[in-house]
Amino acid sequence: MNNLIKLILKKNPTRLIVHPYEKKIIASFNIKKTISLDNYNNIQDFNKKINKEIGRENLLIGGFSFDSINYVKKEEWNDFPIAEFIIPEYAVKFEKNKLYHYGSDDNLKNYFSSATKNINIQDCANTLSVKEKNLEEWTNLIKRAKESIKNSSLEKIVVANRQKIHLSKIDIGKTIQNLIIRYPNCTTFMYKNGESIFFGSTPEKIFDYNGEVLRIQALASSIPNNGQKFSEIESSFKNCTLRNEHNIVVNHFIQRIKSISKEKIIISDPMIIELENIYHLLTKLQIKIKHLNHLNILESLHPSPALSGYPVDEAIEWIRKYETFHRGWYSGTIGYIDNNESHFYAALRCANFLSNKQTIMAYAGNGIVENSNADFEIKELKSKFKVIKNSIGFENVTA
Q1: E strands within the chain?
Q2: What is the DSSP string of 327-374?
Q3: Full residue range of the structural domain in which residue 243 is found
Q4: pLDDT per residue over 65-122, tens digit each?
Q5: Which of 300, 278, 166 is nearest to 233 (CA)?
Q6: Taking every pair of C-alpha atoms in the chain, what is the biggest distance, in angstroms?
């Protein structure tokens, strides 16, 4: 698998989704067809076009922005529409130790078929010395969020932050390799559009669906990984504030599932997910249900309280009013539909590289509830930004 990733990156893929733990890779090269949504009033027509291509058993790779209804094409997101799916000229999928080919490019097919397995990528990570950005504005936003929760029906608000990183160049191949190596339990992705490269390593799968079984992951509540003993982490996650934040997301998904099916929902016990920089609390939900539409599932589940807050609509309105930047595809969705199978992930721990501006815009955010502690939230936010900062691999970086 590692050797295949190296081969893929050498060929400059247009789209890339890698999940090392699941031993799964999707990579596409060049674009045969693009289906874009530039005006939300055209969403029904957009969905019809996507469903038509699904019926033709085409592989579609794409996603949606965070706030599709109120999308604003700011400069940093000029290359990305509200939503977009592409049908690649050629693509390769590695899954269950098998290699699948899409398209008719014999040169690329032969190139990837020659890949050997189990050759390790050399760790090319460099820890960066990055100037810390003043977080006073974000801290004030946390205070505003807590005040709003106290005096309204809001129970949770996900407050995001953006950091600008200037650099003279970026080796995107090494950056992606660094993310894969450092975060093997996450899904690393890269989307190239125009002069922009949207990339990251997300811990959150929203759902996967195979036409018969729908699996959902509720990932919410975090603790920075500072080398604590696991017993300390377990004890910390018993904190009422963290549990409440997590349960809001779980209960939201349960209600959404109940609205489409009366079948029994299988719900796991909450489990702790350990990453290099942070711990998360995860609950898995599963239900047997046939003949669901992939886009309808996505519309029903996104944005969840894990990405926006709760109640969702009120939280999104708060974000529109008070956040000082437009999220674009940050906390949106990325993923793919392959015949009757779909996999979608939340676009988190991510950045947008603007090659014409020699700038990276990095994004992260925290779920805030009434009892959230500002100092704790700052530590958590910094740990999330490390995902991007420590993956870039250059010393000539300032923020």
Answers
A1: 15-19, 24-37, 59-64, 83-95, 98-103, 156-166, 187-193, 196-202, 205-209, 213-224, 266-267, 271-274, 278-288, 309-310, 333-338, 341-346, 350-354, 359-368
A2: -TTTTSEEEEEETTEEEEEE--SEEEEETTTTEEEEEEEEEE-TT--H
A3: 2-119+127-389
A4: 999 999 988 879 999 999 999 999 999 999 988 999 999 888 998 888 776 444 343 3
A5: 278
A6: 62
CA–CA gap between residue 190 and residue 16 (Å, rounded): 5
Residue with tokens 């603007």: 354
Q: Which two tokens stand for residue 303?
A: 């944005």
In a domain, 398, yes or no: no
Quick check: is 395 in a domain?
Answer: no
| CATH number of the domain to which 349 belongs | 3.60.120.10
**Are 84 and 63 contacting, i.e. CB atoms less than 8 angstroms apart?**
yes
Q: Is residue 399 in some structural domain?
A: no
> Which amino acid would we find at residue 200?
G
Q: Could you give the number of structural domains in the chain?
A: 1
Question: Does the predicted model carry a pTM greater than 0.85?
Answer: yes
* Residue 168 resides in a domain: yes
